[in-house]
Amino acid sequence: MRIETCYFCSSPVYPSKGITFVRNDAKAFRFCKSKCHKNFKMKRNPRKLAWTKSFRRAHGKEMTVDSTLTFAQRRNIPVRYNRDLVATTLKAMSRVTEIRAKRERAFYKARMRGNKARQREDDRKLVLENQHLLPPSERYAKEDVEEMVDVDVQKVKEKVEKRRQELAESELESEEEEVLPKLKSKSKLKMKRGGGVEAMDVDT
């Protein structure tokens, strides 16, 4: 069973799946789905579309130089059947996929290293630029904005805790109001004989 590779996005094309396009010069192109076929007919460059393998390799998002990648290359050399050779090949295939998965994981971790620090810096910048959107208790003073490169973690934690307590208290008050509705005070006015009104007893 031969697993072909999609000409456009380089994903696997299994037997009886996908689309085959044969050009006038008898060159055959295999596509995994109609999306790849349409993009090929529209003469789009796969290196410029972010969802293709060629784009990911060109932009340093996937391994390009690794010894395990040579095992995936197509070989058309006929080899005489040998039971021992087949057994060792099957073992090697499982081992190669395991090694490749480990190396891809290590490559991904190396590529993502430093992202957290960069994201934190972007978040700090966003907070400094949008001080007017924060509650008054959590805004920084104008003179302290320039010195916000080294943030005091303890002060920030205290502010956050204080704000949480305020929110919790406000929620408790609102719950009490819902449970115990306000009693309506009744006040009646009595008409005087000579004109005007006289206040009567008030129920609270």
UniProtKB/TrEMBL annotation:
- What GO MF annotations does this protein's record show? structural constituent of ribosome
GO cellular component labels: nucleolus; ribosome
> Would the keyword Transferase turn up in this protein's UniProt record?
no
Query: Superkingdom, according to UniProt?
Result: Eukaryota
Pfam families found in the cross-reference section = Ribosomal_L24e
Q: Which GO terms describe its biological process?
A: assembly of large subunit precursor of preribosome
Keyword flag rRNA processing: no
Q: Which InterPro entries match?
A: L24e/L24_sf (IPR038630), Ribosomal_eL24 (IPR056366), Ribosomal_eL24-rel_N (IPR000988), TRASH_dom (IPR011017)
Annotated TRASH domain ranges read: 6-44
Keyword annotations for this protein? Ribonucleoprotein, Ribosomal protein, Ribosome biogenesis
Q: What family does this belong to? A: Belongs to the eukaryotic ribosomal protein eL24 family.
- Which PANTHER family does the record associate with it? 60S RIBOSOMAL PROTEIN L24, RIBOSOME BIOGENESIS PROTEIN RLP24-RELATED
* Protein name (database record): Ribosome biogenesis protein RLP24
Q: What is the native source organism of this protein?
A: Ampelomyces quisqualis
